[in-house]
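User: Quick sanity check before I run a bigger batch. Here is a single chain. Can you write out its predicted 3D structure?
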Amino acid sequence: MRPSGRKLDQKRSVSIETGVMKHAEGSCLIKVGDTHVLCSASVEERIPPFLRNTGLGWVTAEYGMLPRATNTRNRREASQGKQGGRTVEIQRLIGRSLRAGIDRSALGERQITVDCDVIQADGGTRCAAITGGWVALRMAVNTLLKAGVISSDPIIDHVAAVSCGIYAGQPVLDLDYAEDSSAGVDGNFVMLGDLRMIEVQMSGEGSVFGRAEMNTMLDLAEAGITELVAAQKAAL
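Assistant: Done. Predicted structure follows.
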């Protein structure tokens, strides 16, 4: 029995509220169970120096957690003068994932920055940030299209992410913190809406896993991504 009482292949409830920030070109609040992430997308008419005169745009991301997003207070990274390794790794993952779903030539020489701020954490924050970040990105692109700034839609497909792992010897979908903190195997699957894979992160943290278990987790992930894409469509 999972701590939450969910079935092995059952995701947590998902809700996505759009337009939650007045000034951002795109924004949403995504809730995956008790994990809540505020996502915003900001359009800037500039690009990194290495992309100048290439005709290509850029999508990047920043990620952070509020001090009381967890059960004990964490110091703000700004007060420590630097970002932690986990933060840097996650925001790079978000950026890579979102860029995989966009035609950068159609975006033109401009940058969209997606900010993902974790309000409350209960496992799977990076997956929620990617899924919600795509919704914010989609809305920002819609703003550009409506204003006539770009003439063709650069969005190739949906992008979403879900965790899978082995908990108490069983492959399970969408780990919450109680499961994630004691899982034998932990993984994150990032996919396009058509279920082609962007990135897979898998690690045996308390045990090893075989090909059959990997295939089971992939099947679970595909079902989870399908649900998340449906939630994105409903939100938009």
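The mean pLDDT is 96.

User: Great, the batch can go ahead then.
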